[in-house]
Amino acid sequence: MGRCTGRCSLICLCALQLLSAFERQIFDFLGFQWAPILGNFLHIIVVILGLFGTIQYRPRYIMVYTVWTALWVTWNVFIICFYLEVGGLSKDTDLMTFNISVHRSWWREHGPGCVRRVLPPSAHGMMDDYTYVSVTGCSLSFQYMEVIHSAVQILLSLVGFVFACYVISISMEEEDTFDFIGGLDTHSYYQDHIELKPVKPVEISNAIDFEMRLLDLT
User: Residue 183: inside a domain, yes or no?
Assistant: First the structure.
């Protein structure tokens, strides 16, 4: 019963993680955030692997998922520190795009309540520069949107880590119990055969003696 509950909970959680990862991947693609895109891609693969291992009773796959959740939590903590500019990090750098482009988070221009305006080219130097875009009226800044997304990922990963450890422990306990019962049966079977071997010649000898006595009487 406990195993079924743990497996069903882990399956539902993996499905929820996949949905949240796909949602985040879409917005990271729109913002050309290549580092998060790569991380999301690996996360999706490992979650699918953990889901397969849970359905097919493969504890090793679940172990891989468990290790990855710890790494995924670390990565999302780094993203939170990046956007909150903790420890000398700056959200205005091109770290998330691998310095390939000057794009920023998609939520910077399309966040809740944001009004995006393109300023006249004559006011600045280059047409393709990001400074041509003016964003006003945002009810929630883009860095907090990214922090919320990372916090959700951390929460799901922590819960998934707990359920994965529980499923692994239940599976290992059942395997140990199965091996113990199998070994006990084999041992008792062997003992029964050892005990029965000396009984057979005694029965045969008694039968021969009885027949000889009948012959003597006749």
Answer: yes
Q: Which residues contact 50 (CB under 8 A, 6 or more apart)?
A: 10, 14, 61, 62, 64, 65, 66, 68, 160, 164
Q: Tell me: the pLDDT tens digits for 6-25?
A: 789 999 999 999 999 999 99
Residue 35: name the closest of 93, 84, 107 by CA.
Answer: 93
- The answer to the question of residue 170 being in a domain is yes
Identify the H or E element spanning 63: helix 59-83
What's the pTM value of the predicted model, to 2 decimals? 0.74
Per DSSP, helices labelled H in 124-141 are: none
Q: Which domain holds residue 184?
A: 2-101+141-190
Exposed (0-12), middle (13-18) or buried (19+): which is 159, by Cβ within 10 Å? middle
What is the C-alpha separation between 44 and 179, in angstroms, rounded? 35
- Does pLDDT of 128 surpass 90? no
**Dihedral sign (CA 141, 144, 149, 152):** negative
Max distance between CA atoms of the chain, in angstroms, equals: 137
Which pair of structure tokens corresponds to residue 157?
A: 């990963």
Would residue 218 count as lying in a domain? no
